[in-house]
Amino acid sequence: MSDPLFDGGDEDDAATPLTPDERAQLILTYITTRSQLNEAEQIGIADADRWAFRRRRDVLGEDFLLALHKRMLGGVWKWAGTIRNTERNIGVAPYRIGVELRALLGDARYWIDQGAYEPDEIAVRFHHRLVAIHPFPNGNGRHARLSADLLAVSLERERFTWGSANLVEAAKTRAFYIAALKAADIHDINPLIAFARS
Fold first, then answer.
1. Cβ-contact 94, 87 below 8 angstroms
2. Who's near 179: CB < 8 A, 6+ residues apart?
3. Centroid of chain to Cα 177
4. What pLDDT sits at residue 9?
């Protein structure tokens, strides 16, 4: 039987597929369609955005990144803010997440301390690696974009515009984003930097 929240025509191709156990952790039981889910998640993301930008945060702290994800999706999903323990078609194996995340945080601190890249490139490289790690069951792209925005602001740059569209709902803009991520996967970061400022 088809579930309009997770299967078939109303499914959001932008979302990482959830396991049945992860699906069962939906807090808001009134949600029955993907559009209702997107709306509920967006409310939490907007709240997390206000909370995160209210004062200076240690974006390069593992505890902060977990708290930010929980703040974004914790009103909708019980697993929000917890590292995934299941395999995905994207991201590192679950047992590697902690190691890779700590390496990314150390690398980003080094890039900043040494002036290895321009501030925009540091934030975009951070975003790309965070997406590649894919630490959470879902919401990784949204979390990585907000984290990169916070990092850019901490480096005295403006927030990114990320194509000026909601990437969950704007298929064409999302296609440009995915293409830019794939270019970064093969060591061409420039399309992703350009997309982040478009």
1. yes
2. 191
3. 13
4. 38
Sketch out the chain's domains with CATH numbers. Answer: 8-196 (1.10.3290.10)
Distance, in Å, from the CA atom of 54 to the CA atom of 179, rounded to the nearest integer, reads: 32
Q: pLDDT tens digits, residue range 50-71?
A: 999 999 999 999 999 999 999 9
Is the whole model's pTM more than 0.85, yes or no?
yes
DSSP 42-93: HHHHHHHHHHHHSS---TT-HHHHHHHHHHHHTTTBTTTTS---S--SSS--
DSSP structural state of residue 26: B
Q: How far apart are CA 142 and CA 134, in angstroms?
A: 11
Distances (CA, A) of 19 to 23, 43, 84, 172: 6, 23, 11, 27
- Length of the chain measured in residues: 198
Q: Tens digits of per-residue pLDDT, 71-88? A: 999 999 999 999 999 999
- Classified as helix, coil or strand, 23 is helix
